[in-house]
Amino acid sequence: MAAEIPKPVEWVGSSRANLLQFPSTVRSVVGYALYQAQVGLKHRAAKPLRGLAGNILEVSSRHDGDSFRVVYTARFRSAVYVLHAFQKKAKRGIATPKREIDLIRRRFEAAQQHYNEHYGEG
After folding, report:
1. The model's pTM
2. 43 and which of 11, 33, 89, 99 could share a cystine (Cβ 3.0–4.6 Å)?
3. CATH numbers and ranges of domains, the chain
4. Contacts by 115-120 with C-beta closer than 8 Å and gap 24+?
5. Nearest Cα to 75, choosing from 48, 45, 103?
6. pLDDT tens, residue by residue, 12-70
7. Sheet holding 66-73, edge to edge
């Protein structure tokens, strides 16, 4: 069986810079999850982000009592787009704050436009 060729990862907005600020253990979990997305798999920690359609997934990882989240989509045939990386600061509930959801929506639209312009596939 031939090995799957990994799709490239495209970083939207400040997602890459934000991820680089995370603890190394969190970056390792996220890196492996993104690699799995690149080869067509889904990491066990990747879950659909509630309230958003379009195969948008979230990987959540904890470190020293803090919760770090990375949101990406693998819905495009030729690339994986990392839409957002952030530390969840709200102390109540597990829901993603509305301002983060709004940012993810805007970045998903930017990813769709980028994909159409650079990969030429609808």
Report:
1. 0.91
2. 33
3. 9-119 (3.30.2310.20)
4. 115/10, 115/76, 115/78, 115/79, 115/81, 119/76, 119/77, 119/78, 119/79
5. 48
6. 999 999 999 999 999 999 999 999 999 999 999 999 998 787 689 999 999 998 999 99
7. 9-11, 80-88, 66-73, 56-63, 46-48
